[in-house]
Amino acid sequence: MEDSSPRRLLWLILSLCCVSAKAGLTVSPSSSQFFQEDSVSLSCEEDDSSAGWRLRRNTTRETRTQCGAGWGKSAGSSCSIGFTFPGDSGVYWCESREGATSNSISITVTGGAVILQSPVLPVMEGHDVTLHCKTKTPPSNLPAAFYKDGSLITETTGHMTIHHVDKSDEGLYSCDIRGHGESPPSWITVTGNPPTPPPPTLCGSGCSSPSGESPPLTVLWSVCGLIVLVVLVLLVRRRFLRKPTGPEEEAGLDDITDDITSSHHLQNPSRQIGETDAAAVYAAVRRKADVRGTTGSAHRGHECLSHDPCVCPPDAGIVYSSLRFSPV
């Protein structure tokens, strides 16, 4: 049975490197305050629909209850509340089957006549923010006083804009319309701009960021990808190295070696001829009179009995009767 330990290691690395899916909660209409009997839709904007995101909430009456369990109408990862009541005020968030959670949102439902429409999500530093003070019955665009942390900011008609917000603008806001009443307070959160990542630097394994923060997600993905690549290479090498080498393969290697040697000789004919000539040894040198023909016709003195010129060659001073080759 083939050892599956490298495959198990690969599976473990992939499991560790996979980042759990995320989701963000959105509200429509985008407001943190609602009048009683308003309609509200909340949705989990998910990265992975297979994670099974569901909306949950904490209120003064219940904890971690899921949409559809006594409140709201569930439709996949969304939840609709057709008629809101003050008991629907609370904290809402998305949660996956594995227990991952999204951002949370605070919603206030009032039975009063005035609400403050403010951003339900954190505001990015440097952006503009507009606050609306509204009444349940028209006209809604009435002169209103706006407060921050209980202190009067300004009195204007219907709305107020804060330009280029920063951390000092974070706080608890409310508004008041004379003759109608005051809105519930709502907290506005200001978040800083995402930091610009520093240029990459070459450092050893002990290198860490100056702030001590964990490495960014792209670095983690790069490391995981490198580890997976190394494991795959090891698996391929393991598969090829386990192939047995039989007699046929060894014979094949010998044939390949002979072919390479022959090819080398053919490509260097001058070297081959030179080595052959150098290996020739002249064993005996005798006169023509001592040589006998190979066909049975013999030479007698200077007279040849055969008329065949191939048997009786022309006179020559010396005939090399036999050659012996020494081994190379």
Q: How many whole angstroms does the radius of gyration measure? A: 48 Å
C-alpha geometry: elongated
**SS element count, helices:** 4
Query: In whole angstroms, how far apart are the ends?
Result: 53 Å
The low-confidence parts are 200-217, 248-253, 260-267, 269-302, 316-321
Can you write the helix and strand succession as a string?
HEEEEEEEEEEEEEEEEEEEHHHEEEE
* Structure class: alpha+beta
Into which percent range does the helicity of residues fall? 10-25%
Strand fraction equals 25-35%
- Based on DSSP secondary structure assignment, what is the total number of beta strands? 23
Major β-sheet, in short?
Answer: 5 strands, mixed
- Overall average pLDDT: 73
Largest beta sheet: strand ordering: 2-9-8-4-5
Account of the protein in words:
With 328 residues, the protein is α+β, with helices and mostly antiparallel strands. 21% of the residues lie in helices and 32% in strands. β4 and β5 form a beta hairpin. α1 runs antiparallel to α2. The protein is elongated and about 90 Å long.
Question: What's this model, at a glance?
Answer:
This protein has 328 residues and is of the alpha+beta class. It contains four helices and 23 strands.
